[in-house]
Design a protein that fits this description.
The chain is α+β, with helices and mostly antiparallel strands and 291 residues long. The protein is 46% helix and 15% strand. Helix 3 (52-64) packs parallel to helix 9 (224-235) and helix 8 packs across helix 9 (224-235). The model has no long low-confidence stretch (mean pLDDT 91).
Length: 291
């Protein structure tokens, strides 16, 4: 079967999407798209057997009802450059294949992540892994200058050890996690959607959110109907626990939610998201298609 191409994805191939100060995401290759998804769902090798409208409806139906295996038929390969501390978060998604640059074989580049002043923020008082308000500009600039001094010193000591003949695999050990690394990362569309859902969330660290946004741009180009369905049924949805459903029912009956302080805070965040998602006009209804 000839390789199926998607014009939007072809236009994006090998184009660097700039991320942070020195990083990027680059779509290197892809296999399949929306058509591959509907073919897999129908267990059919023919093309054009259904209308575009029916294909779109089927894709929405699959995502809405968590029929995920057809989305695994679509593969995307990326070349990514990110700070090591982001790579360590990223690699927790173990449903991909990757090959990372090695500091045992190569001299690491003098490239370190330096945040923008507005990203230099206080520790959140109610979130152990989050940030609060930004520091005053003069204090933020002082922190950035300190980071740059430390990075330069660490890299100078690294190259000094290299010049003395110390093994690269040992000399690299004192380099900070702000150092940039690179890898090739291949993942199927289903697991890419899972990555994006978790890492594009407002609670995720800013530095990985911007990478998730770049990956989302590529996913949308490769499979636009699938990404539309993902936004509609996953990103734009709100999931309530059993206790939260009971609280919501009490609210709809005019009562109080009846939750304790911490569960109440999480519940109200979902309620606010629900309120914000109400469209000005009712969206097109996606009915169960004939497969």
């Amino acid at each position: 079967m000839p390789r199926t191409t998607v014009p939007e994805a072809e236009a994006l191939l090998d184009h660097e999407i700039k991320v942070l100060d020195k990083g990027f995401v680059r779509l290197v290759d892809y296999m399949g798209g929306d058509q591959r998804i509907v073919q897999a769902a129908r267990v059919s090798y023919g093309e054009g057997t259904k209308s575009v409208r029916q294909d779109r409806a089927l894709i929405h139906y699959l995502i809405k009802h968590w029929h995920t295996s057809p989305f695994e038929q679509v593969q995307l390969t990326f070349h990514c450059k990110m700070p090591i501390f982001i790579a360590r978060q990223w690699i927790r998604h173990r449903t991909a294949r990757l090959n990372e640059i090695s500091g045992r074989y190569s001299i690491m580049k003098d490239e370190f992540y330096v945040p923008e002043p507005q990203q230099v923020a206080f520790q959140s008082s109610n979130n152990k892994q989050g940030r609060a308000d930004s520091l005053p500009l003069d204090e933020a600039m002082a922190i950035i200058e300190q980071m740059e001094r430390d990075q330069k010193e660490a890299y100078s000591e690294y190259t000094g050890m290299i010049d003395k003949g110390v093994a690269r695999e040992l000399a690299r050990t004192n380099l900070p996690v702000s150092l940039y690394t690179e890898w090739y990362w291949q993942i199927d569309l289903h697991n890419l959607f899972h990555f994006i859902r978790l890492r594009i969330d407002p609670h995720a660290q800013y530095e990985i959110r911007v990478y998730a946004e770049a990956l989302a741009q590529c996913a949308k180009a490769v499979a636009p109907f699938a990404y539309e369905a993902f936004e509609e049924h996953i990103l734009g949805s709100v999931s309530f626990s059993k206790a939260e459903c009971a609280a919501l029912a009490r609210m709809l009956s005019g009562g109080e939610p009846g939750l304790e302080e911490r569960p109440m805070k999480a519940f109200m965040e979902k309620v606010e998201k629900l309120k914000a998602s109400v469209p000005a006009e009712a969206p097109e209804e996606f009915v169960s298609p004939s497969t």
